[in-house]
């Protein structure tokens, strides 16, 4: 009897799952609607529909983003559970009672009304509002950006719009694509070689904007561009720090509290395991031999008066210390392997869950790199090429490969090191030259000329 009650309660709970999930999504949509009505005049949460500062807008956008995630998860739960509930209801007879029929019809109408309301709210945010506002403020005047040498940023925006095409509604995308195509034509027009130098035309255009009496919109555009740049810089720095801190914390925490105790326990149960590779064994023997020879030397010159038995006792104690030390080294190397795997997983999770931030960081880095002067670009290119593929780079690669082998407890292989040094820097050099020829020569030919002069 008790089992039947438990099964009955479980069935009723599962049958009510679609309504619970839909109610959760409906409440989240109501909260978004409340934010829109109270703070954004019934419009979507965006800087275009309010006079709030950047921090307030970011707060509301974070709230809406959380509610949208709740809606998406609840709708997935609603669709899945409703599918199974409908399958279970197929075997049941249709209710003959008129009151039950009316009740089911009313329930269906209520579900449709809630879904319609949810769709109205979610449809406003089909295109991610943060990226869209940033894109609009960044693309206030694309032709000016191309003239000022910031074409790479527009290319990144175009790529981000292309990636959104798979996620957004077709009608909204058509408008975006038309806008993008028209602005791309402007960008291509500025790439054509003119009679006058481009810098001279840029100067004339800048003076014309400054003395234009109808430049009220220009000031607003400059403010928007500044806010967007500040927002992009903050997001980029936070994300870069996140990429560094999260894997490091994951490595230390997993190694300290998870992997190292397991490895130490295994080594304690297997005391015969002392050395995990031959290099550690030779290093331990060399240290022990050096200690024994030092004792004999001090005894020979009269600095100590130790008998042969005492010397052997000292050597035996030193051997115990060395064995424990190198057992810990081996365990530390094994723990590094697993901790690095956890760090790699954490890094991949951060990358996979922050695609929008990656696009912003790419645009931020492109703006920094291509915004440098020609001399600075040439200096950085020469610095990195000489460091990694230059004449003295083999010594640095040997140190790097040796450190990696020691980190993972691997024996150092001289043949592999020589093969790596003979091939990998050549591949890097080819990539550098291709990048200079393919991209930098088109974006900044004067930087390429400066690089060649400095390199000669």
From TrEMBL:
Cell compartments where the protein resides: Cell inner membrane; Membrane
Chain ranges passing through the membrane: 235-254, 333-352, 364-384, 416-436
InterPro entries registered for this protein in UniProt: CemA
Principal subcellular localization: membrane
Origin superkingdom: Bacteria
Keywords for the protein's UniProt record, in alphabetical order: Cell inner membrane, Cell membrane, Hydrogen ion transport, Ion transport, Membrane, Transmembrane, Transmembrane helix, Transport
Family, similarity comment: Belongs to the CemA family.
Protein name as it appears in the record: Proton extrusion protein PxcA
Organism, scientific name: Hydrococcus rivularis NIES-593
High-level lineage: Bacteria, Bacillati, Cyanobacteriota, Cyanophyceae, Pleurocapsales
